[in-house]
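Worked Example 4.2. Consider the chain below.
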Amino acid sequence: MSTKTNRKGKPQTGPRLDRNWLLAVRVLLAVAALGAGYLAWVSLSNGPVAGCGADSGCNNVLQSRWAYWLGIPVSLPALLVYLGLLGATFAVEPRPAPADPRRAWMAVIVLAVVVAGAAAWFVGLQVFVLRAFCKFCMTAHTCGLVAAIICLKHVPLGAAPAKPRWADKDAGFFLPRRVFARLAGLGLAGVAVLVAGQSLVEKQRNIVKPLPLVSATNLPILSPPPPAPPAPPPVLAVARTNPPPPATNIAAVPTAPPPVAPVTNPPAPAPALAQLAAPRLLSLHGGAFQFKLDELPMIGSPDAPHVVVSLFDYTCHHCRQLHPFLVEAQRRFSNQVSILSLPMPMATNCNPAITRYWRAHAQACEYAKLGLAVWRAKPEAFHQFDEWLMAPADPVPVAQARDYAVQLVGLMKLETALGDAWITRQIHTDGYLYHTNFLKMGNGQLPEVMIGPVISFGPLNSAQDVVKLFEQHLGVK
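Applying the procedure from the previous section yields the following structure tokens:
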């Protein structure tokens, strides 16, 4: 500590600060602020994050409930805190009035504790809760944490002064330890407010976008079951459109009926009306995609008046969370709504719509093929297999899933179904539908739920949220 003079020759009280650590802290905080600012801009614009796919670790973190505080992106308050701490570092340098550095150091202590505590909280969430990492978040947290530690290490602490003031022209500026403890406690209280706000208030994270209505044909069109064919009328009642001219001067020649062969096997009864009905067709994007509802996996009856389309991936974290909500919502509406389940693996080895390799989806094709093979081999076993595969938080090993499929449908039937070219065509069709939605809507986040004239992208928090979407956009109760 020393007493310096300013340009006017007046004494200037304050510690002789090492500008090296100040420069390092400012650079770190600037990097952290840039990262937080970028994430805030992405959250507010609902845009994609550079280098993060639809179900990458980065996207899973940013789309989780922990990415929001009281309904707003946490990157916004983080940006303000980083900028506040950065500004405070410019005010801790010696000034003619001792109150200036005192207030600045008070702000540094509180904000540094908030930054360090928040960094520890969010890193812990990514490691232990989400088990996924966002490179932008981790960069900001790391830079902020290091800057906060450096700031707290350089706080000028001292014993309580004999006089009731924090600065003495002879001794220089310092901060009593008891005051430091109180300010640190205030910073920890700020961290507690952060944790409580995130734990108690959960923001709706999905994005609902209306389909572009260039024409009415862009709406999903569901063909009704065809009416029953009319029974043929008796032969005597048939009206002839071109009756023969009346015979004149021609003698009628009676003809004998042809011999009737004895009936050894009576004819089989006519099939029931439901078996005679042609499959219902769901037409999407002006007829570019048509799905026969009785030939694809569905949750509910294919005869339901309202059909929702679910594009999902068995290896997608948010898809697995949404699955039981969709099942519960369909059960509440019963025969009013059914859900068309279209597996859309985010893997390059079977889906031409995916052009980038993601380690988290390396085996997505195997799960999708197994699900569709179970459906082809034994449709009544599909729902049991689907529920079992979606139940854990993470997918079971592929070998275990295959063993369970064999248990449900048999080895020979499963092998035959896996060799069916229909599975490959269906995965390609689902991928092209996903790609079309991305081109039209500018969003490729899974899961995708096509509900009448809108598409919901991303996770939902509960089955009640799904019910509200169905009620709002399908007009059902």
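The chain has two domains: 2-203, 210-223+279-474. Residues 2-203 form a domain with the de novo design (two linked rop proteins) fold (CATH 1.20.1440.130). Compare this with Example 4.1 before moving on.
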